[in-house]
Design a protein that fits this description.
7 helices, mainly alpha
């Protein structure tokens, strides 16, 4: 019985650390990753075959980020459209998810005006601010870090 309990505790700890590392890695690559970093993380998510909401929103954001890292306008548009579709699809299904709204805010704020993807900035910002205190510490740290450079997100 003791062995089983220890095994379950170890498994829980391992899964918690893995989830934390995945989220942290995603936000690091999204904010400062090179083209190779973004491409590798996209391939990692696709290789896992994970089609869950979090994997989809992360891939969507990475595709949108990749649009700014490729050379040709056709590639830029293709990556951005793919990312936007994934992001919007997940937010449609998970409208109250503050992390997803935060990710969309980042993409919309950073997107060039020519792609006309800025419709939800105020709505997402208000939702993030209103729900900030309910978030886990890791997501709060990411929001705080982003808010320092954001023109639209003001967490105080």
């Amino acid at each position: 019985m003791l062995m089983r309990t220890l095994l379950l505790i170890c498994l829980y700890f391992f899964l918690s650390v893995s989830a934390f590392a995945g989220s942290e890695r995603f936000f690091t690559v999204l904010s400062q990753g090179s083209r190779d970093d973004v491409e590798k993380l996209i391939l990692d998510y696709e290789a896992k075959g994970d089609t869950g909401s979090q994997a989809n929103i992360y891939r969507g954001a990475l595709y949108a980020r990749m649009a700014g890292l490729v050379n040709t306008p056709v590639q830029r548009l293709e990556y951005f459209k793919r990312g936007r579709l994934l992001i919007e699809g997940e937010i449609k299904q998970n409208a109250d998810n503050i992390e997803y709204r935060f990710i969309r805010l980042i993409i919309q704020e950073q997107a060039p005006s020519i792609v006309r993807y800025r419709d939800n900035i105020e709505e997402d910002s208000a939702m993030i601010i209103a729900g900030y205190e309910t978030l886990d510490d890791e997501l709060k740290r990411e929001i705080d870090r982003y808010a320092k450079t954001s023109k639209l997100l003001n967490i105080q």
